[in-house]
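Continuing from the previous page of notes. For each protein in this section, the sequence appears first, followed by its structure tokens. Read the first protein now.
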Amino acid sequence: MSARDLNRRACLVGLAGATGLAGLAPVRALALAPGFAGWEDWRARFLTPEGRVIDDYQGDISHSEGQAWGLLFAVAANDWPAFDAIRGWTNAFLAVRQDPLLAWRFVPGEAWETRDYNNASDGDLFYAWALLRGGRQFSDPDALAQAERIARGLIEICVAEDPRRSGRLQLLPGAEHFRHDGGLTLNPSYIMPRALHELAAAFDLPILAQVAEDGAALLEEVAAEGLPPDWLGLDGGGWSAAEGDKGRFGYDAIRVPLYLIWSGRAGHPMVRQVAQLWSQGGEGTAVRAGRDGQILHRDPSPGYAALARTVRLATAPEKVIASVSTQAARQGYYPATLGLLAELVAHDIGIPDT
């Protein structure tokens, strides 16, 4: 553990004692929760002992999204040491902005003065949600306090009014660069209603609940015209898919149906759109497609297959037969992580296997 991490830990211990919270010591060395089989493989492959989640698809960088997902996995696995390590590393190396949000990316060997301090609001959202879940599970008041700070920071910095309808709110992908000329640029895969609703309820932040509902409503509008694009724009005239590859269904948009299912919305029209795409035969999972459903690229990675299978199980279980392994050693970071997310969703909401 770095000197900076140790200093942070000492400061938190002092704060707990000063505020009368020292008696709420976190639970340590808990047995792993049953029913979350993929965690140990994923942890061994992508999580360092210091708590850094490594994205081998992008040159072994780390990012707020990966740290947040890792934190969620640790909570689901009841793995306090991993939760503590991931939070310690993330707070030391990504919680470096002047606001409560996280810098989105860490590049090994990069000097502090050249760091990219922009945030990614999905990473912030999932990190706050994981802190909320972990803070409750491990009786950790510092995690809960940080979850609330981040949730409030998202409202103050990354929530914007929909330019098409007064009073509707949308979650910007980041604090900077996504407002322009009376319009917004959005990423549909940043809409995660369950995380927004749970944070809203925990900290009495009804604005986040509204963001969840307005985001889900936007996805309904998009679903009426096809698959979700990775990126879209909003202005006074309506919404439009981004130009080029960013306006197609791709590696971001494949997460959209999973988040809706996780939020208890398996009947959402966008889930049905993507489930229909993934019900087609062929080798590998469709990971890139036109918005009209024309498949542009398939990938054989088992994590993508597990993701597609979970979506199909939630919509038409009678048509799903084969089981899918999510072993991390067979694939790189991104498909392995999406496969483990799919496993967590099935475990979390009780999607039965076949």
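Done with the first. The second protein uses the same format. Note its length before scrolling.
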Amino acid sequence: MSVMDQYPFIFSRERKWRLRRHLTFWAVWWLSLSFLYSFIAARTAGDYLSHLPVSMMESLVYLIVHIMLSYLLIYFVVPRFIMRQKYGQAAIMVVCCFLLAAGTSALVKFTVINNISDFYMMEPRKFFWPSWASFHMAMMAGLRGGITVAGFAVAIKLMKTLYEKQERNLQLQKENTESQLQLLKAQVHPHFLFNTLNNIFSLTQDKSPAAAKMVTSLSDMLRFMLYESNKPVVPLSREFHLIREYIALEKVRYGNRLDLHVELPDQDNELYIAPLLLLPLIENSFKHGTSDIIDQPWITLSARIEDNMLFLKLLNGKSAGSIIPGENGGIGLQNVRKRLQLLYPGRHELQMQQEEEVFIINMKVELVRIKQIQPGSIAAENQPHV
């Protein structure tokens, strides 16, 4: 069991644990702020305990502003600018958020906090618009509290994100080592394999062009799996080419019995994806879907790209009553789901749906568009590590 599994209160993404984390953090901050305000008030006039109730009320009101500021930074500025290394824009957004929080805190003080104090002291007074000096002092006071709590919140978020990223990389390295060991146990020497395929291609080129074409397609697929699948990312167009080669080989087996519709967009090699991420989905459709249908097997595959987002939809027929291994079964689909969670956390969606005679897969992945990836560059370091 990993450290992240041992401490679900800190690392779990389940709704109940996230809710407990946030409630605990804000409860601690509210109590700390209440005791601090009460202590400050007691230094100038009155007893400490007598000021505690009104301090708790005031702190609760200010807490709304602090929550707004912290969540703006955590869920907007950090993921959209800091994590994407847009530091100039991040600095501007941070300043804007702080100024917004300071102004809101000042307005809250003169419209709500003063009324709470007056009600508690039994000294009601009419509202008057404060002078610029008073408003400026209230902004500075609100800014001080906002920076403190937002700094804590962002620091916790960044430390947690960096730790989770490190743990994912360690897990990926472990799984990659295990997969390479399994590959070595069952691997035929690549040179022998490709030489044999070349010999078969030479023998079949004149007598059976169709068989020669199949050998060429198989050779391309094996070369990709042996030499390119160990790369962190490959061009999306290369992954689409591999899918077309695989489908072409399967069409030979089914002949005219297979009703196949494929729509894959042409790419400019600027979008990159983790290798062999899509092929297991197609293979699953043939293995557990069309192979069990006697009359008219069918598969529909469509993909589209919007900005950096890849949308893929895969449907295949299946025998009535049969169950295609999905989330709880099927090694291929389990591996795809696990790789998506490790390589594209928070940047993907994968839905599998079983109907009476159809199996549906909907997948959405946010990819990265890179014109040229140089080894060791920042762009290369930001790519998923397989």
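What the second structure shows: The CA atoms of residues 250 and 309 lie 28 Å apart. The mean pLDDT is 78. We return to this in next week's lecture.
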